[in-house]
Structure prediction request, 237 residues.
Amino acid sequence: MDEPVVILCGGRGTRLREHTQTIPKPLVEIGGRPILWHVIRIYAAQGFHRFVLCLGHKGELIEQFVQDDGLPEDISVECVQTGEDTPTGGRIARVGDRVRGGRFCATYADGVADIDLHALVDFHAGHGGLATMTVVQPELQFGVARLDGDGVVQGFEEKPQFDGWINGGFFVFEPGALEYIGDDDVLEREPLEKLAAEGRLRAYRHTGFWDCLDTYKDAVLLNDLWEAGRAPWKESA
Prediction:
């Protein structure tokens, strides 16, 4: 695949404080490898070979990982310091010169999925918009009480699947989308909202496995799946 992949690696991971006091969130390990390694492998296994990492908090440790770790040999990885506290949109804007020549992909450094990236890019190419956002229906973290109109509890459903759709990352952008993204923008707010308001943003529904490394509980779940040989995203990598 010719599309470069921008990976947002600048977050502090404050809800993962158990891990991120000494390392940046993208280096928190799943199965003995940083979550960033897993994300890169998902793309590399499906033919993507050029990666631009948007660094921020403790970015020098990510640079060291790229130099020393066992990433696929047939890929190129460019690390770009995009600022300690730059928001997500600003990080993409600051690497615009690296991707401005054509269509590019982008995602977060903490989300894994068994996503078919070729189908995602084909979907994007077919709708003619400027941007595509993968949307997912995660499993809720809590059980849900079923009530009748009088408030009588009729039963419980343990951790049901959310019936709406949320942003799951795994974006595809046309070069023109960069005109909507400023240096101080949070990607998920004004840029995507404006693209949506103009009818230039489409949603790619991913109904398979998806999870993100947001809390310690997520780290335990993803590690358990990997150790048990049941990590769905591994099949995509």
Remarks:
- The two ends are 15 Å apart (CA to CA).
